[in-house]
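Hello everyone,

My group is preparing for a crystallization screen and wants a predicted model to guide construct design. The compound we'll soak is zinc ion. Before spending weeks at the bench, it would help to have a computed complex in hand. I've included the protein sequence and the ligand's SMILES below. Output in structure-token form would be ideal because that's what our pipeline reads.
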Amino acid sequence: MQSNLSMGNSILSIVVVFIIAITISCDQKESSTNSQDIGHFDPKGNAPSEFVISKWEELNNKLPFEDERDFEEQKKGFIASPDYKEIMADDGHVAWNMGKYEFLLEGKDFHTIHPSLQRQAILNMNFGLYEVIPGIYQVRGFDLANITFVKGETGWIIFDPLTASETSRAALELINKHLGERPVVAVVYSHSHGDHWAGVRGVVDEEDFKNGKVKVIAPVGFMDHAISENVYAGNAMSRRMFLQYGVLLPANPYGMVDMAIGKGTAAGTVGLIPPNVIITEDVQELTVDGVKMVFHNTPGTEAPAEMNTYFPEMKAFWAAENITGTIHNIYTLRGTLIRDALQWSKKINEALHLFGKEAEVMFASHSWPRWGNDRVQEVMKGQRDTYANLSNGVLHLLNQGVTINEIHNEYNVPKSLQNQWYARSYHGDVKNNSRGVLNRYLGHWDGNPATLIPLSPYESAPLYVDMMGGSSAIIKKGKELFNKGDYLNAIEILNKLAYGEPDNQEGKDLLADCYEQMGYQQESPSLRNAFLAGALELRNGIPEGETPTADSPDILRAMSTDLFLDFLGIRLDSRKVEGKAFTMNFITPDNGEKYLVELSNGTLSNIEGFQDENADFSIKINRSDLDLVLMGVKSLQELISTGVAKIEGDPSVLSTLAEAMVHFELRFEMLPGTGSKDEKVSKNPYQQDMPAVIGAE
Ligand SMILES: [Zn+2]
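Reply:
Good plan to model first. Here are the tokens for the complex, ready for your pipeline.
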């Protein structure tokens, strides 16, 4: 039992997935059809096909490239770039590297990149300090998001301090160097996604916060959602980031080129200072350091807790992440609940009528500002209509029988919006978003009993392979389809082969070739990355690559006890506790919380505020001590034996739990026949590195 009690090295060590790019041998494969001289990063990789190139040329002639306003806006107000391209993490690795994307600035057209995406990828190459208007500044290109500085009477009010302390600190140093040193007097978190708060410790000193010198302002619901969105499905979401964000794809014209709302996520030190000012009203005014601000809560839009801000004295509107240089994710491929496109549209409409009619500039946590009231209104109305049309349009079609398997081929963005860059689908691919909207209302079933409880792919595929005449017939037909540029049909049959014969590498390589040509054609980096990372995994297996862990005491502290107990329930292997039952009182005296935890029917439940007088086991541990256990500073056994944690009753309850805990491995198989060669690491039974996807969106 002793060993099972050694919860010591972190029950939940929360980890931000930041992955140092995998080193894949860099075969300088020549592309006969592409003018570039940068080689493919994968020896199995291919140049774009003639079909991809002709589609590229068609799009290049069709899209509204003559509208160059984004480029003027992106450049406007430039003050200075730093004299470095890399920002180092405190522990010595590279936290941020803008230099690896410089191939985009060489004036070349890459046929491996959708021309519209290449344009967006270049726009996201902003790097340095910019003036929005006198008194409002942004540092762009230091992380996935922008960090914004508003000049108060005595210091800086910072909006959204990035993902990592190192990048936010570098941004603060840059602005202080060029505009004069000022203290940070307030921080505003626009919403609950980690790229907008996890770098706060780079700009706020703990003592200043404790002494009340710094206000930290956040929308209602911020703390509930900052952590929770990434816990329950956290491991799967992190794994899916390999695909959506291509975190293991090298930056290269054949690989990673952009993330739609920025270049990527910084890999540095994460932290969280809980807000001491919560904006609870729908619209709430506050003056901070002489700056009048009107906050506008927009829950249920891009994030569950989010708010815009209007600066009436400057006629400046901060759109948080509600309006950026792209249509956003309604369904994000990494996971999270499907967002509400109609609610999003309505909140943009509110902002338009509250502030947009007079705003002279609109700026946001990603992309670049829009100047002039006409332009502000144009973009606000355009995005309002794009989200509303998506929701209405999908509902319009589903009410006439269009299913989740068809909607992406039926729904189209209105032509007038297709010609507006701000309404294009970089982050949230429109096909994918339309399926998301349908799923929000009708779920995954298309209404056909054939798809109601289908066989799993590994079960159904062998019969398909057999009926199609075996692997050589499938590969022959697959090659024919590939050579005709009919990639989606080729994928249909080759995917069946991959499941039917997971060790058939020739088949998987051909499937990967199809994915790659599909990837080159995608406007949305989410889809591009998914296809290209899929090709990488099929060709080489699940990529190795460092996934350093970044324990963050702040984030563990911020995790509510019920979330922690819920997650134990998720990690519990039901089969191992069959026939077992117990009740446990779980008390954390310092914060006054009491939980009743019950194991019955192979299921762990918990309820706050209740206790069982006849509980099998009770444990009293201050939440601050539990935090030490979660952080791996102390073991639970140590705290029990020194009397810091007090127990009563049958201690085998804890060993029962420990024995049933499953450690979720990050590198589980997603594509057929790519599973890792079974290297099960033995772990402390309570340990679960939970790679919180806090850096995303
Ligand atoms: Zn963001």
